[in-house]
Design goal:
Elements lengths: L5 E3 L2 E4 L4 E3 L7 E3 L14 E5 L3 H8 L5 E4 L5 E3 L2 E7 L7 E7 L2 E5 L21 E6 L11 H17 L3 E5 L5 H8 L7 E3 L1 H12 L8 E2 L13 E4 L15 E6 L25 E3 L7 H11 L3 E7 L1 H10 L3 E4 L2
Parallel strand pairs: 3-4, 4-5, 5-6, 10-11, 11-18, 12-15, 12-16, 13-14, 13-15, 16-17, 18-19
Antiparallel strand pairs: 1-2, 2-3, 7-8, 8-9, 9-10
């Protein structure tokens, strides 16, 4: 049987079902795995996504975007291809795409993680013949500590800064990471403030039943009364502007798996690379699977054919081949 999915310049295409998965450009019909900008792009005539992601996708794609949704596990047939969406554990509404046709099952992982996260449904292992997996952190050096451990480190750092009258700033992606941190913080430790880029997405999480603490926005004049005591969460790009000056003195941190790229995470105002904003300390919190998580995910699928994309593909493909699996690397 011919491949159910093929790589094209526009993205993953299913010729039998006539749809794309996370296309890079406008197409007629697109299945979207989650609401991050590198997966959800404007310009498609029809979108299909998990129900839990609809509000975030409307914010990303515009209210007029034609978005059809499915509950997790709910089937839909397109030209004989049976499609269902299943939790990926990446962010709110993130989904793996399961395709079944002619007795074969293919699964496209999208971005995913296996660590617990209070803001989204946990990763669901799916048995399949062919597994298409991301491997953003596909090197053995990427091995995440327990998230609770990193959150307690973050809170301890915040308290240390409070004792010195210093405002604490954590850089975290505006969709997913920021809400995960908010949901994991103990609000009794002090006031919490968020950048407007993050604030605009909080209602989508609350509407989905995610418990988040009360926060103020950085552009709220009342927030300035909390400088020296508050914890501010802002997106990494916000490091380059001056919105934070009224909150000085500030201590900076970064929550990301890329923290492990930096041998000693004290950069003294120097960014090590494009993944590394200038900060004082880093916390290893990632919304992607680490090396052991990638291995475990593949093993749980039972797939003998694994396609790898996005990240350190060569190293992970070498492990897959050594384990006896047929592997194709797709950049």
């Amino acid at each position: 049987m011919r491949d159910l999915l093929i790589p094209t310049p526009a993205g993953w295409y299913c010729p039998i079902g006539d749809f794309y998965i996370d296309p890079r450009q406008g197409v007629n019909r697109a299945i979207i795995t989650h609401a991050h900008s590198d997966h959800a792009r404007r310009g498609c005539r029809h979108y299909l996504a998990a129900k839990a992601s609809k509000t975030l996708l409307q914010q990303r794609l515009g209210r007029r975007a034609a978005i059809e949704t499915l509950r997790y596990g709910e089937p839909l047939c397109l030209n004989g291809v049976r499609i269902s969406l299943h939790p990926a554990g990446h962010i709110l509404g993130s989904a793996q795409v399961r395709l079944e046709y002619g007795g074969e099952v293919w699964v496209v992982s999208g971005d995913y993680k296996l660590q617990p996260d209070p803001t989204c449904e946990p990763f669901e292992p799916l048995r399949c013949d062919v597994f298409l997996t991301e491997c953003t952190f596909g090197l053995p050096c990427y091995c995440w500590p327990p998230p609770d451990q990193e959150m307690r480190r973050l809170e301890s750092w915040w308290q240390d800064n409070q004792s010195q009258g210093v405002t604490s700033i954590v850089l975290a992606y505006s969709i997913g990471k920021a809400q995960r941190i908010l949901a994991s913080l103990r609000p009794e430790l002090g006031p919490i403030v968020v950048h407007p880029t993050i604030a605009q997405h909080l209602e989508a999480y609350r509407a989905a039943g995610v418990a988040l603490p009360t926060v103020r926005r950085t552009d709220d004049p009342m927030a300035l009364l909390q400088k020296g005591r508050c914890l501010i969460i802002a997106p990494p790009a916000a490091r380059r502007s001056h919105w934070w000056w009224p909150f000085r003195p500030c201590a900076w941190s970064w929550a990301s798996g890329w923290v492990l790229r930096v041998p000693q995470y004290r950069l003294y105002g120097q960014a090590a690379n494009h993944h590394t904003p200038a900060c004082d300390v880093g916390f290893v919190l990632s919304d992607h699977a680490d090396w052991p998580g990638l291995q475990r995910a593949v093993e749980m699928t039972g797939a003998r054919t694994v396609w790898v994309t996005h990240g350190y593909t060569a190293a992970f493909a070498a492990w897959l081949r050594k384990s006896g699996r047929t592997t194709l690397v797709l950049e």
